Amino acid sequence: MFRSAIFALVVAVVAGHGMAAEPVPVKGTSVAYAPTISTTVKDKAVPLSLTGVGLRTKVGFDVYTVASYVQDGTRVQKAEDVAKTDTVRLLHLIMQRTVQPDDFIGAFRSAVGKSYPEGKFATEFTQLVNAIGKNAATKGDHVILLHVPGEGVRVQMGQKVDVTIKSPGFSQALWEVYFGSKPLDEGLKKGLVGSMKP
Hints:
The chain is of the alpha+beta class. The chain is built from 5 helices and 10 strands. A hairpin with a 3-residue loop joins β8 and β9. The radius of gyration is 16 Å and the shape is globular. About 35% of the residues are buried.
């Protein structure tokens, strides 16, 4: 079952000494992401490749860096392909400032609302709110969103939050926040496909 799946993520940030390939830096920050990582889903190791990196800013402040990964062998040529492909996908956020839970969830709710009617994912957002509770996304926290095909999305926030939302539609909506036709930020969207091979 997805809930009991072993989840292991191998990432490299900042230095990454001794790696076969150089980490990909996020401009304007000290963060760099590994070009390849591995995650374990349902007891199977799944290799993932970087599609791109970016920096989310708001009113001139850095909020978080983010890297996008897709399962090796996935054919993606443009942003919309990343949003729609039903393979293992992962978004890795590293907080550059502390964001309170209402603001953190509210930002995603607002971004999803650009493409979907109000209340479309009310149940899913309620589950996320209950899981996060009063836990802020603290500066330095690693926030992981893992999409498992046909099942949904697992959200981890450091060691504080680990929730599985069994809703493929909601998972799709979260990826559309970054890669859809009405993205959170066009510049960020461009960066998140900047490492894809033609």
